[in-house]
């Protein structure tokens, strides 16, 4: 997993436009839809103990890939949200994905101020990811396990938008990861099956012009 610098002004403007739209909308509808799956708190969901638990399930072929505990709401393919939120999600899911050249949108998530997502590796939807995150002050983090060394690394959020790329999926090279936040946080993720296509998108994101 590595960080990506968002140097392309058109892409940055597009991302900032999403936040401008979000700030003009009524949050009550989506906040009321957030459900906490499981009875674990965010400190445990992002801990080494929980990672080891998930890895032990994997060894027993009892882990399928999606997160088992989380506190968030994914707006994509969500039929419980109002039309204005649904329209925004479709803009992210389809139009922005097409603009980037991504194969598919993976998620468009809102984390509340005590939100989190537990260790998982998305092996049910393998591919190369491009992940954008936003929070106002950067009071949160993304954490991942290096598949080669087994070492756990933490990437602190930054104020505003940040971006990362890596590989999720079956096999030894899959990246187990988790995240937590102490303030409202947004995540937009896309995935590509083709590594060359992912590299083209990353080059575009990091382009000054």
Structure description:
This protein has 209 residues and is α+β, with helices and mostly antiparallel strands. It has one domain (2-205): Jelly Rolls, CATH 2.60.120. The chain contains six helices and eleven strands. Strands 1, 2, 3, 4, 5, 6, 7, 8, 9, 10 and 11 form an eleven-stranded antiparallel beta sheet that branches. Strand 7 (140-145) and strand 8 form a beta hairpin. Helix 1 (9-23) packs antiparallel against helix 5 (83-100). The longest helix has 18 residues, at 83-100. The protein is globular, with a radius of gyration of 16 Å.
What are its keywords?
209 residues; alpha+beta; 11 strands; Jelly Rolls; 32% strand; eleven-stranded antiparallel sheet
| Main sheet summary | 11 strands, antiparallel
Topology, number of strands: 11
What name does CATH use for the topology?
Jelly Rolls
Looking at the overall shape, the CATH architecture is Sandwich
Brief digest:
The chain has helices spanning 9-23, 28-31, 42-45, 48-59, 83-100, 195-205; strands spanning 2-4, 35-37, 70-74, 104-111, 116-120, 127-135, 140-145, 152-156, 160-168, 177-181, 185-192. It is an alpha+beta fold.
SSE layout:
Layout: E1 2-4, H1 9-23, H2 28-31, E2 35-37, H3 42-45, H4 48-59, E3 70-74, H5 83-100, E4 104-111, E5 116-120, E6 127-135, E7 140-145, E8 152-156, E9 160-168, E10 177-181, E11 185-192, H6 195-205
Antiparallel strand pairs: 1-9, 2-3, 3-4, 3-5, 4-11, 5-10, 6-9, 6-11, 7-8, 7-10
């Amino acid at each position: 997993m590595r960080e990506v610098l968002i140097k392309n002004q058109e892409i940055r403007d597009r991302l900032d436009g999403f936040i401008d739209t979000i700030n003009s909308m009524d949050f009550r509808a989506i906040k009321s839809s957030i459900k906490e799956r499981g009875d674990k708190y965010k400190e445990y969901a992002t801990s080494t103990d929980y990672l080891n638990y998930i890895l032990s399930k994997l060894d027993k072929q009892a882990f399928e890939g999606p997160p088992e505990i989380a506190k968030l709401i994914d707006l994509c393919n969500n039929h419980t949200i109002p039309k204005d939120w649904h329209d925004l999600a479709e803009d992210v899911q389809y139009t922005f994905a097409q603009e980037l050249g991504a194969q598919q949108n993976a998620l468009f998530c809102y984390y509340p101020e005590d939100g989190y997502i537990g260790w998982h590796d998305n092996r049910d939807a393998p591919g190369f990811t491009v992940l954008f995150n936003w929070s106002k002050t950067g009071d949160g983090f993304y954490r991942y396990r290096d598949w080669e060394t087994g070492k756990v690394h933490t990437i602190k959020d930054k104020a505003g938008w940040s971006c990362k790329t890596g590989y999720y999926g079956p096999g030894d090279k899959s990246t187990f990861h988790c995240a937590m936040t102490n303030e409202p946080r947004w995540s937009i993720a896309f995935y590509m099956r083709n590594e060359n296509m992912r590299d083209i998108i990353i080059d575009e994101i990091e382009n000054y012009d």
